[in-house]
Model the fold of this input.
Amino acid sequence: MRRRFLQHIYFVSGLAPGLIAVLAGSLVHAQEAVEPEESVRSRSPLLHIDAPVFVEEGVDPVMPLRAPLADPESDPAFSQRSDSIRQYNNTVADIELDGGAWDRGLVEELASLGRLQQQQGNHVGAIQTLDRAIHVNRINSGLYTLEQIPVVEQLILSYMALGDWEEADTYNNYLFHVLYKAYGKDDPRLIPVLERLATWNIQAFKIGYGSLMGIKLRQSQIMFSAAARMVDVHFGKADKRFVNYQRNIASSSYLGARNPDLMVEIGRPEYRVMQQTLAEKLNEQRQVQSPGFRTGERALVEIVMFYQEQGYDAYALAEAITHVGDWYLMFGQDKGALGNYKVAWDILQELEDSEELTQRLFGKVTPLPAFGSSIETPDAFYRNGAGTEALSFDYADLTFDVTVKGLARNVKSISEETEDNQAQLSKLRSSVRSMRFRPLLNDGEPQYSFDNQFRYRYWY
Done:
């Protein structure tokens, strides 16, 4: 039964059966129909919109809050760490007195001191200390020693905490260079560093860092693809990282499709060569393609195939097929979207708790994309270099109808509108009109729904 469903998904999506055809196939050129999304740091007073939460009648929705700023001084261990910092400073001074400024014994002491400073919230001091530890290590052991890797990782955390994107970018790339040189392209120990650099590249795209953001997005896809392949080879697709990496590929593909103006550089000959070189370096044999419709489609179909092969989680399979349908809907491919929704619906009807599971997947309007990603915008994006809140945020409840094609109509704000928030709410309503939503389904058929209410948190 499930094999019939999977063959159906290939049919409605325009993909031929079989792995090779699935990975090589494509639908129509939907990218041209996608409206470009404004970059996060636009001229609008509204800078960022978090994922909305559906408001059910009589239920006050719980909005996930960003982690509050930590106050190291309120930590019971603060005083103890302060004492340890003084002891490490004394130890460092003693080593310098006996062995000089480049004594090998300084590395471990400086690394420990830097971590303590980091835990105290003193990232500027931590960077100075950790940077010195790295230099001492290089002088004693060489430029590309693996001993420096834990210190470099700590250094990146402090640069990220301060929002120093340039140095974070430099050291993320340096970390990859050192570990690739040490491990080579097929060693599973390379997987975490591929994930780290790919994640950073998508974060850099989200915050608008760098002059070649399209290239960063494409490089992230190549790295996630290589990491997923290596996870499959060494650990099997049942390793949760495999599906997570595919979702991240789809997420970055969506970002690329929504920002076509930033992706122009990918097509230039010199940058195509750069991308192909990276792919070959990571033993990626697939043709290098721009982020967008085809790449995201392939990643989501990979997830469907994984759950099909597992054969024991019918709901996960239905959800994965639904996400493929979402993908087509976001690109205006209504036939493929509705066909896949029907396939997922039929799978759910065969389950013992079908009513509950169907309600979970199709019982309310769902903002798209809904396939999820593990990559968050860095906390420092919302704060200034001193670590305090730099952006303000507020909430607004919006109501709107959703058509059978997932379009928002009659968008209205039911929150109080004032002179202070008028510009933000206007931009918020405009943004919602350009979004797509998975419509309600009844008996496997999409329904026009009225007055759907969502709560939005927006930053300005």
